[in-house]
Write a structure and sequence with these properties.
The protein is α/β, with parallel strands linked by helices. The protein contains 14 helices and eight strands. The strands form two sheets. It has a five-stranded mixed β-sheet with strand order 5-4-3-6-7, with helices on both faces. The chain has a three-stranded antiparallel β-sheet with strand order 1-2-8, with no helix packed on it. It is elongated, with a radius of gyration of 26 Å.
């Protein structure tokens, strides 16, 4: 479209007032098309987004444009998160609480997931969920604890995730909460970095019960095999003991497995080591009695939803920065922060530049 262009001869830059009024930035896409494109690019393979836009919106756009749009918005979300962390740590300026009634108990669960780089190596993205829980009755009349109001945070490292999670928890009212639960699979960075952000007097660290159970099943299979009846009998018995009496009885059972001291299977060694290191976080009888959630399914589901189902599709290889950017977009969408981001997002301005030319000879 024709529009007025103003050029500054001294610095060789220009300005189009209408572009500013329309919100047009450095992207070749208008803001609404960029929002739509990045949303679709985070939700489906870029080529499918191209086909969707052409069929249902009449917008002809290339695969690379969808890629650039999605990544640029993800990078903007990441920069927003980084800026908030820097402001909080350097200027001691925490974000305001966004909830009218802070929760009595707030949960943070964390996990990591790997995606493939172009060279075939794996790269991990760390994901955390901040949420509350509620009790529900299932069809058998049993009480189940379900997560609600999940808020996802992603980062490249445990330290970055821990800081960003803390700020998200502050927005969710953690400073006024009575109790804080931190759930994880036992990875050291979860306890040393994420849990360390919160006061110990308020924090209860819980190893995911189902992850701990997998160690028991793996040990049993290594001793008796996959199909032997004793594998199921022993594993179910130890899982029951773990939930109702705690880890110490299970540790004794692991030490009593019928294996030769000279040829202990690595799965048994791994289980013994895991229970020895994580026993202080396995007081499941107390956790259940106090109404704590003992499974980090919220984090595992978040890992799959935020990263896994998009980044780990068949044959996909990702640039590490691009994969993290896409995960940021998905986290914003799944956490209901997408619309709020676009209300305040200011795209980088379009730069106009003329190169001085030499008049040609007549």
């Amino acid at each position: 479209i024709e529009r007025a262009y103003y050029h500054h001869g001294a610095c060789h830059t220009g300005w189009v007032p209408l572009d500013s009024r329309l919100g047009l930035g450095s992207s070749e896409l208008s803001p609404l098309v960029q929002e739509m494109t990045s949303y679709l690019g985070a939700w489906m393979p870029f080529e499918q987004a191209v086909q969707y836009l052409a069929k249902y919106q009449g917008i002809q756009i290339s695969h690379d444009s969808v890629n650039r749009s999605t990544v640029s918005i993800g990078e903007a979300l990441q920069a927003q998160q980084t800026a908030a962390v820097q402001q909080a740590w350097e200027q001691q300026a925490l974000p305001p609480c966004e909830v009218a009634r802070p929760p009595a108990r707030l949960y943070i669960s964390a996990d990591g997931i790997r995606h493939l780089l172009p060279n075939g190596e794996g790269k991990e993205i760390k994901v955390a969920a901040v949420y509350e829980t509620e009790e529900r009755r299932n069809r058998r009349g049993e009480t189940e604890i379900h997560a609600r109001h999940l808020d996802y945070v992603v980062a490249a490292t445990g330290e970055e995730l821990a800081q960003a999670v803390y700020l998200r928890a502050v927005q969710r009212g953690v400073l006024a909460a009575d109790e804080i639960g931190v759930l994880g699979d036992g990875a050291n960075w979860i306890w040393n970095q994420v849990a360390a952000q919160f006061p110990q007097r308020q924090t209860t660290e819980i190893v995911d019960f189902y992850h701990a159970s997998e160690y028991l099943w793996d040990a049993a299979r290594a001793v008796w095999g996959d199909t032997h009846p004793q594998t199921q009998t022993w594993s179910e018995q130890q899982c029951h003991q773990l939930k109702h009496t705690g880890p110490h009885t299970v540790q004794q059972a692991l030490r009593a497995l019928p294996v030769s001291p000279a040829t202990v299977p690595p799965e048994v060694i791994a289980a013994r080591t895991y229970f020895e290191n994580q026993a202080p976080r396995m007081d499941y009888p107390r956790y259940v009695d106090e109404g704590w959630q003992i499974g980090s399914g919220s984090a595992e589901s978040g890992v799959k939803q935020v990263a896994g189902v998009r980044l780990n599709q068949a044959g996909m290889r990702w640039n590490a920065a691009h994969a993290l950017a896409v995960a940021h977009v998905r986290a914003a969408i799944l956490s209901d922060r997408w619309d709020a981001f676009w209300k305040t997002f200011q795209p980088p301005p379009r730069q106009y530049q003329r190169a001085p030319t030499t008049p040609s000879a007549a």
